[in-house]
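Morning run. Coffee first, then this:
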Amino acid sequence: MSVSGIYRFAYQNRPDKFDFTSKENQQQVSDAYQYVHSELGRIKQLADSINSRMVVISIPLRYQMVLDLDEVGDIRYLDNLLSKSCDEMGLEFISLLDTLRVASQIEECYFPMDGHLNSIGNKVVGYFLGNWLMTKEWFNSENNKSRVL
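And here it is:
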């Protein structure tokens, strides 16, 4: 069995499994997500009150890297909920799902057992976000050039 097959088997047989990709569970996820939406609104208000920019960055779960897209529901369901909230609130949203899925096909980006990013995964995220920041006009202004490493 391949490594990705082992991860799929382990995920599918977890006793605490709650598959947000399945249509049967998405209403429950959507109901629970209302709390996340309201908290995003509160955080945005705080950021606005101190004249700060807010960006929401979605780092996918480990099992989203190994799921076969033909075998599961919508692995983008959580990102779609976050993206919709961000659009409504005028926030920038970055999903790293595609970036990390591609990178994980080349080299493992997560620790095998606990699902956190390993050093390679953190490097992938760091490069992506560093390049993204460099595209921002507000980051590249003359006042900020001395802060760029």
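Helices lie at 3-12, 23-49, 63-66, 77-89, 97-106, 119-134. Good start to the day.
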